[in-house]
Amino acid sequence: MATFIVQGRYSEAAIRGFVSKPEDREKAVSKLIEAAGGKLKAFYVTSGENDGCSV
Fold it and tell me: Which string of b and e fits 24-48 if b means at least 16 CB within 10 Å?
């Protein structure tokens, strides 16, 4: 099975929301990926041009 890496950035509004109301989004993200036929193996918070990376 192929492994895909997805990189992304959060908007300023999203970051403000994360700070004001922290929550674990792993279940929601896993459901979304599984609905597309995949499986979430890992999620990493990164620094630089992208804020996160999912495998």
Answer: eeeeeeeeebeeeebebeeeeeeee
Cβ atoms of 25 and 8 closer than 8 Å: no
**Model-level pTM greater than 0.85?**
no
CA proximity to 15, closest of 53, 45, 43, 42: 45
Contact 25, 43 (CB under 8 A): no
| Model pLDDT for residues 6-49, shown as the tens digit of each residue | 899 989 998 899 899 998 888 888 898 899 999 999 888 888 88
